Give the backbone structure.
Amino acid sequence: MTDTRGQQPSYESYNGPLPGERAGAQQPGGPYHPPQAYGAPAPGGQAGTGAVRRPRTGARTTPRTRKARLRVAKADPWSVMKVSFLLSIALGICTVVAAAVLWMVMDAMGVFSTVGGTISEATGSNESNGFDLQSFLSLPRVLMFTSVIAVIDVVLMTALATLGAFIYNLSAGFVGGVELTLAEDE
């Protein structure tokens, strides 16, 4: 078999541009100057090539709002449980604090003494003084009852949110999930 291509050039002595380089590229010794879209301005204010950049006449003046349509296909039950647990803990703390503040305000206004006196007169007899509302609705007893309600609320809200995530995942498998449209404001 014979070689019909003829004599091939030697690539060791080749000094031209390599593939991917421009023919007139600068040597590594000097600074790189990227090619300019418009020539350098001449002293008269015109570009070197004679081209003048003018604004487009049909250009928009209002910014364009980008929109993206997304679909919530799955809610991770573990992350839903963690978030709902923390939110229900915060709601439980707020409930206990609100009950304490409300009790203190009502006690300062004299509500318990006035209503307690009326109830003890209505339920009292000659032998007994009747029902004592002030001892029944004392601050420690109210805070204990509110704390029990808050703990039950934490457990129920966490369980219901986690169950809701499982139910959402089942229904999203059938109908595709909730679609959201997000818009970017500029």
Remarks:
- The longest helix spans residues 139-175.
- Strands lie at 66-72, 178-184.
